[in-house]
Fold this sequence. Notes:
This protein is mainly alpha-helical.
Amino acid sequence: MHFSEPRTSVLINRPPSSWYLFVPALLLIILPVAIAFDFGGVLWWTHYVASLATSTIIICLLPSFLQKELPNSKAFLVLAPLICWCGFSYWQCTVLSTDWVATLSNATESAHREWAGDILARATPEGLDRQAELIPLSVDPESTKHYATLALLLIPYVASALLVFCRPEWAKWLLLITSGAVAFHVAYEFWCQLFPEHSIRGTPPGQIDLGFGSYVNRNNAALHLNLGLSTSLGLLAWRIASQRRLGLANDDFDVVDVVNLLASKLSIYALITTSLCFAGLFACGSRSGILACGVGLVVLASRFRIRRVGVFAAALLGICGLVAWLLVAPNNDATTLNRISEISLKTGAGISSDDRWSHWRDATRAAAAYAPTGSGLATYAYAYLPFQADGSEYWFHHADNLYLELFVEQGLVGCTLVIVMALMLMRALQRLGRSEEPVDVGLYVAMIFAGTATALSQVFDFGLALPSNLLFFALLASAAFARSVGMGQQVRCPVTLKLRLGVYLPAIMLLVAVAIHSAIGLYSDATLATRLQIAELEYQTNKHDRMRMRALAEKLAEQSTRSESADLYDLVSLAQFQAARLEELHQEDIQDLQAYAEAYAATSLTNRRLQSREQVGQSPEDRTSKRDGYEASLAWTMKSLEMRPLSLKPRSMIAYLDFIHQDAELTRRTLIQLAELQKRFPRQLLRIGKLSYESGFNELAAELFRTALELDPQQTTIAIELLKGAPQLSLLEVIPQRSVNQRLAASAILDRKLDGQKVAADADAFLRQSVSHFRCDELSSAHDRSHCLQILATMHFSLENHTEGLAALRDATEALPADYSTRITLVEKLRELQRYDDALAEARLGQSLFPSNSRFNALIDAMRDERIRRRDSEANPRPLSRPQN
Length: 885
């Protein structure tokens, strides 16, 4: 970084009185760090509060446009790509012709026309025909519209920040307040570790807490901490630069300067906030966060040609790091460093097993399919589902890679606009680096570190998608951009009345309109979300009350006429089914409480569909009378599927409601799609397989069971349990031929046979063919080989192959000689087969190998007594009794 003679910034040639900037500046600074305490700003009411704050900010800034001199218009150039990006995001939730959607995003057209259309055409062909011409450009228009409305807030927010923070006095307050707020967030987390009842995260019992502060995701929290650390470093750099005016370029930073710096309250404040941010990064558990911090510090150091002052700054940071370590080490709270120590550079343990690596291949395929315009903002949770091939069983609501997620959701268009904004910011930082004003040095340091840390951390995270972090980064970037424009120029920016009325006034009114429009839309969404939460609570509370359930179903149906929401349609469908169910039970007039409970259980979704298959012989009139009131539930489910074509919930409901539509082909298609959308989730595949064989689709069920067990052989025990109720399925078809599956299946069957439980009809046939698939010698662990051979022996004995069983037991004792229990089993089995000499020999061998084990002595004594009894019996045979006359 090169420093020349001081130059005067001409962003504001004659700064006007800024009393009217106090409220908007304070709101701009506080908003991102305040909503961070709401889980990072994810709740929809928080979005509405943010829109109110932004509207207040832009309205309070109206007097600034009455000034005779305004900031250089170049400061607002960054708004151009931002407006295009927000407009593109909003455009994604509009409806277009199918031809256009197929051209712009082929996978989106496939989601609407093939995935959902295949089911809708079978169930409601007339409804599909009406919608055939126009479909949304998003696979989840509701979410896209909400988050696009939220994204619109960036336009007035960034414009306000450009207007306010071009003034150096407010840029200083930006560094001061945000660094303190993030440090307070870290202190809050440490307080909650001492007093967990004060934490707002509320981790459910049995789940691991992976959050920090108010964030439920440690990587999201780490980004917030890195942004706070950037402002702390910027504050420290500003204080150092202001100490000697020419700042970091001087090489004569002497002891007096050091003493004066450390005597400053502001310097002490900056050191405290820096230490707390370091402590938070050590304790939060985010390895990517600490990596991004380290790289950010290295990049920051490389930007300066420094000597003595650089050594001093490095020493200060080292002291802050030591203080941070002392804060977390005594209580073993250095979670991040502990997780880093678990990584093995030789074997790759701790990294290679991360599910993100395989999932990113799925995300890449999805991105290529949705190009060039993407699947729609905030749709990733559903968009990638049809493209699963390598991922894990987890449902990724985010890609854990913001670049891939952006590519999937917004395609080449959205990515290009974001790249343009990033390049403009980099150019602005180059200009800002030539400034000698201390506040510019502070902003430069903060933004270099923040930009580097953010760019790197988002390779493994999605934290910038959270409103708190996004607004925080936008705030810093806007301040840096505003301070960078006009460097080296000596021109004034006078504003005539004509220019104010013709350009600036319409622009500011447009910003006000955008803010108010966003506030109205976000209020509507937040209100709907609250009503849905209340309705779900009412449903759970009153699900046995016939009158209240019917009233709830009617209220939700009426609400759905005013609001388009897939979640609302799903809830209406559930409420309609429950209301019809209670009405049917009421009409039967069951007086006995036990009988009513049995009838209620019999009318559940699961049992009802099974009963409908047993009632095929009923007259059409009887079947129709039992269907009254249920058709509405199916209709609302179809509406939900039409709006969110890749959703899982309506497909599950269609499969359970097959007693209403009574279309076997529709059920089969629905089950196939459910399996395809969850093809990496073994437990779900087993559930869908159960639904399949209950519906009579035996081949589909066998395929799903086999796929699930190939993905996770440990689910074999569950599969064996489910197959007890499916005599039409053969174990030979369901269990994969892999040795691990064969061993687990055989073990599960043998355990059930020994316990006297019911097993599949072809269990013995499966055991016979399974012998050749065990391959115990392929196992690397001696313990595993011994256990495998024991199962093989038990299987041989079950099939009465005693010779092979004894051979397998002997091999098991040789595989693990230290296991005395296997040798005892061998001895007892030899006794059972009356091979007493062999049993005694094995027992004496065990006695010599395990002299301290009394069980071998007991076995030898028992067999000696048996031999004596046999000899006595042979020497004195019992006389035959004579028949009595």
